Amino acid sequence: MSLNAQLAAFKKEQAATASRNVAYSRPASGTPARTSTPQPTASNDTAKRTRDDAFSQAVAPAVSNEMLSQVNHARGKLKEKLPDTYTFDEIINYLSLPNDAKKNIPRIKEALKGDKHIEWIPATGTSKEAFKYRPIHPVSNAEELKDYLTKRTSAQGISVKELKDGWPNCVGPIDELEKEGFVLVTRNKKDNSPKMVYPDSPGLRLKVDQDFKDFWLKTKVPTTDIEIRNELEKAGITPTSQVKEITKGPKKRDRKRPTRRGGKTTNQHMAGILKDYSKR
C-alpha cells in the first residue's frame, strides 16, 4: 500500500472514532441530560447574620468587662459620697459614657440594682429613683456604733476594718468610746491600732481602792519554774512537774496448775462391756 493510501485510511479511521465519541456523549432522544446537583448556598441575610454572631461573640467579653468597670466606678462614687444618694441620671452623667457605650445604660441600671453593696431607692411621686452605698455595717458615728453593738444578739465583736467600709475615720471615736467605758477594744501588737470592737458599759467598771492597787503592785509573782515550784511546796500544793514515784506492790505469784496424774479409769456402768487393757 502506498503512502497516500495509508494516510487516507488513517484519516478515515480517526473520523469514525470521533463520530462514535460524539454519539456516546450526546443524550438519546427523550432522555433528559444529566446535570450536576447544585449545592445549597447561604443567602446574603444568613451569611450576614452568621458574621454578626461571630463578631458579637468575639466582642462580648470586652463589653462585659467595660460594663463591669462602669459599675465599679459608680459604686466607688456612691461610697465616697456616703450617706448621700444619687439619682440614676446623676450617676450616668458622672460616668460620662461614650456614644458607643450608651447602649449599655439599661444594663448598668440592672447591675446597680443587683449589687449587694448598693441600695436602690425606688421613685416616689415627688422624687426620682436613686442609689446609695450600702456598707458592711450601718454605722457612721459613735452613737450609731453604741446602738448597733447594743442591738446585736451575739457577743461577737466587729472588725474595725469592716467599720471603715462605711466610716473611714472611726479610729479616733473608738478610742474615745473605750476611755468612756462604752466599748472594749483589742489592738494590733504592731502599731497598737484597734482591731476588734466589743460592747461594754460604764456601769460594769467598779472603783478599786488605792490600797488594793498598791498591794497588788507590790506582790511579787514567781518568774521561773523553780520559784513557782518552791512557792507551791510552801503552800502544801504538789507541783505538776514533780516526778511521781511509782510504788511497786507485792509480786503476784504464778498460780501453779495441778499436774494431771495418769491413773486407772474405770466405768462402773460399762464394766461388763469394756475390757481393761491398763495392765498391758
TrEMBL record:
InterPro entries: TFA2_Winged_2, TFIIE-bsu, TFIIE_bsu_DNA-bd. Coiled coil: none annotated. Residues 249-263 have a biased composition (Basic residues). PROSITE patterns: TFIIE_BETA_C. Its main location: nucleus. The keyword Transcription regulation applies. Residues 13-51, 237-280 are annotated as: Disordered. Residues 32-45 have a biased composition (Polar residues). The keyword DNA-binding applies. Transmembrane segments: none annotated. Residues 58-140 form the TFIIE beta domain. Tetramer of two alpha and two beta chains. Recruits TFIIH to the initiation complex and stimulates the RNA polymerase II C-terminal domain kinase and DNA-dependent ATPase activities of TFIIH. Both TFIIH and TFIIE are required for promoter clearance by RNA polymerase. Belongs to the TFIIE beta subunit family. This is Transcription initiation factor IIE subunit beta.
